[in-house]
Each structure stands twice: as C-alpha cells, then as structure tokens.
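Re: that chain you flagged

S.,

Sorry for the slow reply, it's been a week of failed gels. I finally had a moment to sit down with the sequence you sent. For the record, here it is as I used it:
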Amino acid sequence: MARCGKLYVIAAPSGTGKTSLVKALIDSLTDITVSISYTTRPKRPNEIDNVNYHFITESMFNEMIAHQDFLEYATVFEHLYGTSRSWVEKTLNQGIDVILEIDWQGCRQILSLLPETISIFILPPSLVDLATRLKNRNQDHPDIIAKRLLDVRETISHLHEFKYLVINADFDHALQDLITIIKANRLERKNQALRFAKLLSELSTSQ
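Prediction finished late last night. Pasting the structure tokens below so you have them in one place:
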C-alpha cells in the first residue's frame, strides 16, 4: 500500500514571510508541494496568474462554491479565497504532501473535515518588525497596511487552534523549524510502516 500524502496548513499574519518560507521549504524537500488558491483579489504587479494564485471573478468563485469545488473558502480583507478540493485529493493520493497557505478561518474548516491535518502558525518577532516588512514590500496602500496590522490581534487569538508555532525572527532558523516538522511527521511509525512494508514483512517472517 502506497503512502498517502499529508496535508499541512500554514497560516500567518500578512507580511510575516510565510510565502517565502513555504517556497524555500518545498525547494528543500522532495514529495511536497503547495496548493495554489483561487481568489477574487486583484493581481498585484509582481504576481503571475496560476502561479501565485488563480485569479478569478466573484461570479466564477460563487459558481465554484455552488458546485462544491472548494475544500475550504473564506473572506479575507473583503476578498474571497478558496482551495481546490479535487486538486488536493488527487495530489495527496499520489503520495505527495500538500501545503495550504490559508488563514485561521480556512484552517478551522480543514480541521473539521480532516482532523489529522498538521497545522502550523508563523509569527514575526515583533509588531514593529511586521509593520516594517509590510511597508518595505510596497505591495499595499497605507490604508490596507493599517487594516492588516489591526487584524493581527484577531488572527493571534486563534493561535491555540494550531499544533505548531514558528517564529520568523531569522529566516534560515524558521525554515529549519518547518523542515523539522515535516521530517518528524514522515518518521512516524504508521508512515514508516507503509514506506517500508516489504522490509517489515521480511523481518517478521524470517526464521
């Protein structure tokens, strides 16, 4: 029996460095990928459709909801975000681990459907550091940045719903923390038993 992939949720306040960490994580390990979310948010200048997000209209998004195409979806800063159910299921069945970059609302939905999902929350070292990151990336209007900073308290209030907490004070250290979480899960007995089923069979029947 082949190993089924594991589902991971990684959430963080905007500007924490989540996307950069996830990219480095999937570049560092094999058999792991990130789900590309659907969104009604306008595309930023440096973003590429079907690479950063699947950018669609609100009517298209609502049609996908009606067809139950989403594993989870939520409204974040007045825009809709959703995860493709069929893509996630297909990828996991191929034995590939999948990361969902979603917020606490989506994580709550995922955990209610798939309670064995591993949830990870990433925080910046300080609010001042977060404000600096948001301003330096030059992607949002000052009003949006102010909303994102105000939203941090609400986001952190859901920290207890996650299994792991990673502080991104140093990028390389935070990346190693994420790699450790993934590798530790892969070494769990039930996962190793599937991976090395032939070996275990040979050892248990040897004379």
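What I noticed first: Residues 27 and 38 are 22 Å apart (CA to CA).

Talk soon,
D.
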